[in-house]
Prior knowledge:
Elements: H1 6-19, H2 28-31, E1 58-59, E2 68-73, E3 78-84, E4 89-92, E5 106-110, H3 122-126, E6 128-136, E7 148-152, E8 166-167, E9 181-185, E10 203-210, H4 212-220, E11 232-236, E12 252-257, E13 260-269, E14 280-284, H5 289-297, H6 306-313
Parallel strand pairs: 8-13
Antiparallel strand pairs: 1-10, 2-3, 2-5, 3-4, 4-7, 5-6, 6-7, 9-10, 9-12, 10-11, 11-14, 12-13, 13-14
Helix pairs in contact: 1-5
Signal peptide: 1-17
GO biological process, one term: proteolysis
Organism: Chinchilla lanigera (Long-tailed chinchilla)
Amino acid sequence: MVARGGMLLLLMALVLSWVGPEKPAPTDAVAAEGPRLTQLLSTPCGLRKGHTLIVGGVASSRGRWPWQAALREVQHRLLCGGSLLNRRWVLSAAHCFARFPDASKWTVQLGELTLHPSVWNLRAYLHRYRVTDIFVHPGARGYSNDIALLRLASPVTYTKYIQPVCVQASPSSEFLHRPDCWVTGWGVLHEDLTPLPPPYHLREVQVTIMNNTRCNYLLKQPTVLHRVEESMFCAGAEGGSTDACRGDSGGPLVCDLDGLWYQIGIVSWGVGCGRPNRPGVYTNISQHIHWILKTVASGGSPRLDLPRLLLLLTVPWAPRLLGPT
């Protein structure tokens, strides 16, 4: 790394409360968040322990980004990033699995700062999970709808270094022009494929969220390049220097809201890495909330099991879950 109303939200909350047995009743403070999915099938999300933030593309510290996942295709030694949504599901980018869709070949490492933990590191071994299913968005074409969900073979054990991230359901425009969102990953340091040096620590960088009109203007100069669609958004710096790069794909872009961390984007594509007027492009999670909820709630089945869905709809309406509209 180089430096959508009310009833829908209610249904989302009901679906989420039904799926995971480990999820406790939300506190008033969490429930009041309204359209922001503060609890995606899990215990309170978006919490972390760590030191004061460091500005720029620098090495991180263990526990600062406890939802960060390292995804590996063991046969071809491929690497992508991901983020922990709950005890059984990880979010990543669809293009990571275009060539290698066999779930049995992928593993997910959680809770580690280094990309290459020692073979003697029992802790790393205990927090390495097999993947049983990969669900790629049905509309994924190239970098359009570049989002995928991985179901793990066994439930994740939470620790202070392994926690789920919150997911942002309201539009990413809420974060427009904020310069204090963060991207993390173990990708190369430059588009010339300069690798991470030992000890191969996770890196973090602050980025500014741009509007798509400005981003498309920048990307068209001086020649017409890829177009940023509604399902995407841009982040970085017009002068370059802060960006994601190869190997960071699928990783999270997160922003702090009232002390909780929300993932609003997934590292997707870019023109080079850290070039001036070439911001990075990210999958806009708010455009895919329906798909995420449907996939997780149905366990990847094309449709929700009818008896369970009917049970969902009999749950009393709880206005406080909706928050302001």
